[in-house]
Amino acid sequence: xxxxxxxxxxxxxxxxxxxxxxxxxxxxxxxxxxxxxxxxxxxxxxxxxxxxxxxxxxxxxxxxxxxxxxxxxxxxxxxxxxxxxxxxxxxxxxxxxxxxxxxxxxxxxxxxxxxxxxxxxxxxxxxxxxxxxxxxxxxxxxxxxxxxxxxxxxxxxxxxxxxxxxxxxxxxxxxxxxxxxxxxxxxxxxxxxxxxxxxxxxxxxxxxxxxxxxxxxxxxxxxxxxxxxxxxxxxxxxxxxxxxxxxxxxxxxxxxxxxxxxxxxxxxxxxxxxx
Length: 275
What we know:
By secondary structure, the protein is an alpha+beta fold. Helix content is 38%, strand content 19%. The protein folds into 2 domains: 2-90 and 181-274, Gcn5-related N-acetyltransferase (GNAT) (Aminopeptidase, 3-Layer(aba) Sandwich); 120-180. The protein has helices spanning 2-10, 19-27, 44-53, 121-137, 154-180, 201-215, 232-236, 251-263; strands spanning 34-38, 66-72, 78-90, 118-119, 183-192, 222-228, 241-242, 268-274. Strand 5 (183-192), helix 6 and strand 6 (222-228) form a beta-alpha-beta unit.
């Protein structure tokens, strides 16, 4: 009964700061001195520093993402972490007629529908602004000049109303476009301090960060990650498989990672799971 009650509490937004710890208490196999909690603002810089020291990507670490921390309750030390962060919107909307089949399909035989083409919110806004500008150039309402531009004239009022309507329409178009597109996500910054490894902490962090992604009803269930080829078997327990094509928003990260991994004679690969 206690765990059922706590699972219900887990869905209550007002206690979001403590729900991960509650879930860990009921269902995890963590050592008794380790608890998992949601990240705070003061976690960002120390974690980024460790990631940089370990030659891992320190960028994008943020408590505003789905970032979880494993902490030793005795020493107060952060012993591990994992996060899921957005890597952009799909390059096409949810309307099937707007998808383009790249002809390559997926392992289950379904079309891949160019799912790897991503756009940022800013890029989508720019596309809409370009469309609005084209409409503006062909708009029949000209901005008045001379005496007709005085605020009390009918010409000025008509031009002002047209501009205001255009701005409101632009905002509606942006919101509708962003809400219509699936989002893609990256599991990143998965790390456990060496002396705390082999205790199931990393596995529990990944399980809980994936579970939290589903529970918080994030739009888009495709989760990507970059990892060393030798660690792929470990990620397979969470449903990840090697993805040959890297999402466009991860290509720079992949290129930089390849430079670093070659220095240590390792291979970097992209993996993906769908929740």
